[in-house]
């Protein structure tokens, strides 16, 4: 149980910005120990769909993953972005393997079930094969994970990257000390949404409930924080939310918001 | 040295044909022992480039991989086709991991040097990290390899899939008994190019030289056969060329051409 694993989700706004992404990857490559990088796709998939004149499918204001959209996100997330990140990390002497949840059957999912909306080819996670991930990590490989999964019938599914990071963290928490880091373009969870410097250093559940009741927390942060507390309840050591371009400070707890 | 590894390259015409690809994957999934599937991309990358209005770059009649084309082939080969194959093999209970040569630094390449033509972002293979590939195989994973590599500076490179299959076979021959299978839409090497049933069952080098001198061998087959004999000289056990939809018969030596 001495094994320590750091799982870092990097947000789309960082992926979209070459300079920020390179700075992030340079810091990430230097982190010691076992690590997994989970990435989303940023705006590139949306741009590619527009360039290919694939219409955006919306139902009740929610985006639907139809077959054409799935092809695009599989290409962009699991192909282009995944391999560009891997190649850069390798060049930084951080030996990396780029996979998605289908690879090595590492993440098993099913097509989302919903009472009223058919989200199309969107996957919700059933289970994570921790042995598959641990064997890669034990071979001194860093895992770069694209947010595509598959179901038992071989159907690829588009899956939320935050959720994938959380599910991997929860599953690995049974056999390792796991830190889960949500890194993006903001400095952390803010006390005052209008003040970028009002980062809450430590978020406990009572404070979260209070801030939520006061509607002081930015709506987009609520699913992240709900996920974070769920991960802590499931045995994850620390969840940290903060600036992807200050990764070292984040990991050391000198920046961002630590959820515990 | 008892380890046996089967490396199968599947050709583009099979990738392009859903029914043939499914039949091939169903047979491939059932093959016993360690195995590696190397795939190209078929016509999908060309179609995608056309749909995105990316002009085809040609120099002296040879196709050039510019930056836009590299993005397309990385998406299509390492993303869409690779993950579709992995998902189907997993559904056939053949636990697979889809990677390209950049992953785990498994294939190191350099940008092609040529006296007169700049082929663009095309990679020639320097070396194969057999330890990286063997550790995956020893974890009971089937490797699905897309023909993208990287150089030491993190530049992704478009690389010929036949060459990748051959280089992997040669490198692994030092530590295992390796069969290399080039499977495609034809039945094998033909004695008479106009007669699909004139398959040469066994090709030795003296016969090859004779047929080449007589110009009896289809021009497109010559690089494949040159590669095949080079692989045999480098220690590969058998090279088999034949019909992807008759995979069992190929492996058993009951179909196709065996080079030795």
Note down, in words, how this protein is organized.
Chain A has a single domain, classed as Carbamate kinase (3-Layer(aba) Sandwich), CATH 3.40.1160.10. Chain A is built from nine helices and 14 strands. The first copy, chain A, has helices spanning 12-15, 18-30, 44-51, 67-91, 130-138, 161-172, 205-213, 221-233, 247-251; strands at residues 4-10, 34-39, 57-59, 62-64, 96-100, 107-111, 123-128, 142-146, 148-150, 156-158, 177-184, 202-203, 238-243, 257-259. In chain A, 52% of the residues are buried. Chain A is α/β, with parallel strands linked by helices. In chain A, helix 3 crosses helix 4 (67-91). Helix content of chain A is 38%, strand content 25%. In chain A, the strands form four sheets. Chain A has an eight-stranded mixed beta sheet with strand order 5-8-2-1-11-13-14-12, sandwiched between helices. Chains A and B meet through helix 4 and strand 5 of A and helix 4 and strand 5 of B.
Provide a concise account of the structure shown.
With 260 residues, chain A is of the alpha/beta class.
Order of helices and strands of chain A: EHHEHEEHEEEHEEEHEEHHEHE
Oligomer state equals homodimer
Tell me how many strands of chain A there are.
Answer: 14
The percent range for helix content of chain A is 25-40%
Rg of chain A is 18 Å
CATH topology of chain A: Carbamate kinase
Largest protein-protein interface: A-B, 40 and 40 residues
% residues in beta strands of chain A: 25-35%
Name of the top-level CATH class of chain A:
Alpha Beta
What is the domain tally of chain A? 1
Principal-axis shape of chain A equals: globular
Q: Which stretches of chain A of 5+ consecutive residues score pLDDT under 50?
A: none
């Amino acid at each position: 149980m001495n094994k320590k694993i750091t799982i870092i989700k990097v947000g789309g706004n960082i992926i979209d910005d070459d300079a920020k992404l390179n700075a992030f990857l340079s810091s990430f490559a230097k982190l010691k120990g076992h690590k997994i990088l989970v990435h989303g796709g940023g705006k590139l998939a949306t741009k590619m769909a527009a360039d290919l004149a694939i219409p955006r499918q919306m139902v009740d204001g929610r985006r639907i993953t139809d077959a054409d959209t799935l092809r695009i996100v599989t290409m962009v997330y699991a192909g282009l972005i995944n391999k560009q990140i891997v190649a850069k990390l390798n060049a930084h002497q951080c030996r990396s393997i780029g996979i998605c949840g289908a690879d090595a059957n590492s993440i098993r999912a099913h097509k989302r079930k919903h009472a009223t909306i058919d989200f199309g080819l969107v996957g919700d996670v059933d289970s994570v094969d921790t042995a598959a991930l641990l064997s890669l990590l034990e071979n001194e490989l860093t895992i770069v994970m694209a947010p595509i999964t598959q179901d038992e019938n071989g159907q690829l599914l588009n899956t939320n990257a935050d959720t994938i990071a959380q599910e991997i963290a929860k599953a690995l928490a049974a056999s390792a000390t796991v830190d889960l880091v949500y890194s993006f373009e903001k400095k952390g969870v803010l006390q005052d949404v209008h003040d970028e410097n009002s980062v809450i250093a430590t978020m406990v559940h009572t404070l979260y409930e209070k801030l939520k009741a006061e509607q002081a927390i930015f709506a987009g942060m609520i699913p992240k924080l709900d996920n974070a507390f769920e991960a802590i309840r499931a045995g994850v050591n620390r969840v940290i939310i903060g600036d992807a371009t200050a990764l070292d400070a984040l990991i050391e707890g000198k920046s961002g918001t630590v959820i515990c």
